């Protein structure tokens, strides 16, 4: 009997793989490899081959391959989704100024059609598809997919289904329907979710293809599963049409993995990566979900996902000098390749650092180095400045010092744009380098890190004083900064769970910091903050940067075995879980309308509820099979809303929440 699961996590910095035996509950092998964003199949293949080799497992013994990914999250944060068009039906003009819809429509073609339904599922106006034919003819050549959202489609989806059939026949391209993604009211937010989903379909499709190619090459015939944003698994076929459900897949997998590794029922998970730190709260063994839907990159969605608190700080966060700031340097949120890593790939960097360190006068640009990435040759410059910069970097395959490229404010802005677009790479001093200077990390030769820290330490702050005495003190300051930021992120997550306004907590933190810099033993005021729940830290840099002393947060933290591959572990042990809602409304007293694909009327509430449960069980049986579940259980829970009218209970609405959960 096959009882081995292989988990993969494609993170922003590393791609991890792990093989887990469900029968013995043992990790048989694990592997880490740098993520190659320009060629995902390369890093996935390397990670898979490595973990199979280290575990000495026959590929045919693997039953399930599960993947967690940050691709969807990163695409929304960076606004780099593929072009898609939006069709709305029965929306009024006011709707387009709500829920961030107007922002999305700046770069996405949109058409508004007559139609839509009422809150009880009755047709408000007939749908007119003729304008859609002309609109498709004008825009289809420039689009990869479409999204359709109709008013109250969760109460009656007829108009969305009609538009879907029309678009699919005319274009043959993927179409996202808003009622497939959420059963909740709020048409503008459903429209946003549907359009974002349409933009993500090709991106996740590319990832799935890369993994499937790698699996075939290695002889892995297992079923491919994907971790969704709530930490549950679904089959690759299931998620290919709903890629937005993979938003926050990475943080969800880390929460599942950390809770399992630490046997945690309640507490806080801190996942420190190379690019970000994600914090989640665990209650009754499951990560707490966002109440109103995941917010990613400023986009409010209706995706059920873990309520992750993400900070742009990690092992590879760039340390940036600020000569006029209250603090002489900041860490993050932008990522840079650590000096110790870049010097292994480009040995000329070490000579450049030595030359800069030998100069008598320091420059703010010291220790920062640029090169042209693989996709740079495919980039179409947006300005003459960009053209010049790309030509200069192309002429120097080993890269150039920042000071050689940035000679004006305009060129500096151009570098920022090219860096955000992934056209050029950058290396600078990072917390990973600081750890090498201090000896807590020894994966690479430390000479580049020592030189980078020395260059930063001698820069002058706004008072004309060096930032630090030497490279050791500079590195300690960086490690302390990242540890304090991680501590603050954990406190903010706890405050959010307890309903404390973030700004109120930040005010206390500012007071605490001011006191620490004040009169010391003569101070009259004392302020203390902490959490009562256990904290589990995971991620490769966790043992270096996460404070473990009890007095720091009142609880202390633990770092479990296999913490460095917790995301891949979470992917390997996750279960399939699908949630469905069915609403029963009351158009008039004594009439109960069950809102399924075709709303059905009953004159007895018990009969309506029984029908709703039978209907959702049929739907869940189909979807759980499609999602890859071998066996599962279904739980039902009803929420009845009533109003008191003339001292009598009056039925308003009932919502059925049904959850199916099982193993792949």
Q: How does this model look, in words?
A:
The protein has 664 residues and is an alpha/beta fold. Among the domains are: 317-478, no CATH class; 575-663, no CATH class. The protein has 22 helices and 29 strands. The chain has a six-stranded mixed β-sheet with strand order 3-2-1-4-9-10, sandwiched between helices. Strands 11, 12, 13, 16, 23 and 24 form a six-stranded mixed β-sheet that branches. It has a five-stranded antiparallel β-sheet with strand order 27-26-25-29-28, covered by helices on one side. The longest helix has 32 residues, at 187-218. The two termini are 14 Å apart. The model has no long low-confidence stretch (mean pLDDT 86).
Q: Any key phrases for this structure?
A:
single chain; 664 residues; alpha/beta; 38% helix; 24% strand; globular
How would you sum up this structure in a few lines?
The chain has about 675 residues and is of the alpha/beta class. About 40% of the residues lie in helices and about 25% in strands.
């Amino acid at each position: 009997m096959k009882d081995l699961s292989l988990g993969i996590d494609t993170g922003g910095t590393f791609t991890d793989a792990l093989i887990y035996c469900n029968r013995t509950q043992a990790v048989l092998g694990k592997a880490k490899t740098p993520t190659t964003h320009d060629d995902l199949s390369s890093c996935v293949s390397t990670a898979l081959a490595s973990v199979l080799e280290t575990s000495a497992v026959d590929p045919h013994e693997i039953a399930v391959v599960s993947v967690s990914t940050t691709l969807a999250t990163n695409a929304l944060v960076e606004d780099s989704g593929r072009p898609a068009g939006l069709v709305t039906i029965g929306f009024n003009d006011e709707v387009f100024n709500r829920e961030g819809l107007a922002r999305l429509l700046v770069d996405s073609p949109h058409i508004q059609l007559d139609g839509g339904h009422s809150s009880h599922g009755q047709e408000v106006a007939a749908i007119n598809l003729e304008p859609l034919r002309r609109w498709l003819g004008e825009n289809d050549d420039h689009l990869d997919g479409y999204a359709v959202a109709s008013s109250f489609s969760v109460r009656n989806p007829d108009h969305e289904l009609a538009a879907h059939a029309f678009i699919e026949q005319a274009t043959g391209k993927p179409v996202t329907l808003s009622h497939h993604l959420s059963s909740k009211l709020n048409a503008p937010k459903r429209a946003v979710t549907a359009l974002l989903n349409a933009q993500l379909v090709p991106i996740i499709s590319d990832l799935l293809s890369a993994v499937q190619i790698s699996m075939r090459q290695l002889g892995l015939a297992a079923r491919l599963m994907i971790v969704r944003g709530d930490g549950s698994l679904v089959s690759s076929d299931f998620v290919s049409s709903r890629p937005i459900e993979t938003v926050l897949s990475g943080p969800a997998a880390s929460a599942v993995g950390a809770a399992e590794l630490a046997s945690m029922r309640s507490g806080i998970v801190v996942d420190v990566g190379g690019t970000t730190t994600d914090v989640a709260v665990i209650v009754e063994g499951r990560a707490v979900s966002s109440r109103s839907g995941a917010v990613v990159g400023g986009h409010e969605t209706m995706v059920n996902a873990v309520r992750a608190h993400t900070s742009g700080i990690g092992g590879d966060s760039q340390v940036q000098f600020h000569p006029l700031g209250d603090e002489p340097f900041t860490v993050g949120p932008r990522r840079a390749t650590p000096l110790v890593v870049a010097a292994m790939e480009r040995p000329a960097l070490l000579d450049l650092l030595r030359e800069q360190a030998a100069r008598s006068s320091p420059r703010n640009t010291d220790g920062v180095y640029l090169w042209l990435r693989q996709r740079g040759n495919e980039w179409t410059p947006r300005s003459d400045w960009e053209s010049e910069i790309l030509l200069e970097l192309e002429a120097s395959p080993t890269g150039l010092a920042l000071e050689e490229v940035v000679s004006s404010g305009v060129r500096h802005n151009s570098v920022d744009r090219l860096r955000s677009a992934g056209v050029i790479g950058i290396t600078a001093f990072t917390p990973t380098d600081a750890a090498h200077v201090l000896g807590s990390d020894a994966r690479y030769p430390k000479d580049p890190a020592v030189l980078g820290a020395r260059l930063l330490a001698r820069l002058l702050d706004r008072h004309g004083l060096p930032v630090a005495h030497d490279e050791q003190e500079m590195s300690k300051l960086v490690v302390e900064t990242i540890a304090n930021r991680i501590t603050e992120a954990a406190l903010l997550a706890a405050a959010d769970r307890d309903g404390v306004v973030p700004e109120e907590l930040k005010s206390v933190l500012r007071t605490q910091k001011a006191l620490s810099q004040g009169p010391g033993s003569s101070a009259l005021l004392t302020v203390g903050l902490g959490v009562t729940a256990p904290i589990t830290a995971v991620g490769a840099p966790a043992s270096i940067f996460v404070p473990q002393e009890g007095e720091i947060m009142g609880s202390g933290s633990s770092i479990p075995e296999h913490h460095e591959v917790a995301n891949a572990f979470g992917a390997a042990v996750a279960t399939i879980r699908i949630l469905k809602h069915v609403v029963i409304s009351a158009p008039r007293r004594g009439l109960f309308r069950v809102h399924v694909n075709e709303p059905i009327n009953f004159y007895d509430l018990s009969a309506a509820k029984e029908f709703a449960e039978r209907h959702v069980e049929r739907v869940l049986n189909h979807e759980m099979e499609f999602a890859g579940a071998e066996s599962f259980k279904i739980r039902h829970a009803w929420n009845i809303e009533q109003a008191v009218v003339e001292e009598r209970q009056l039925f308003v609405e009932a919502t059925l929440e049904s959850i199916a959960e099982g193993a792949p």
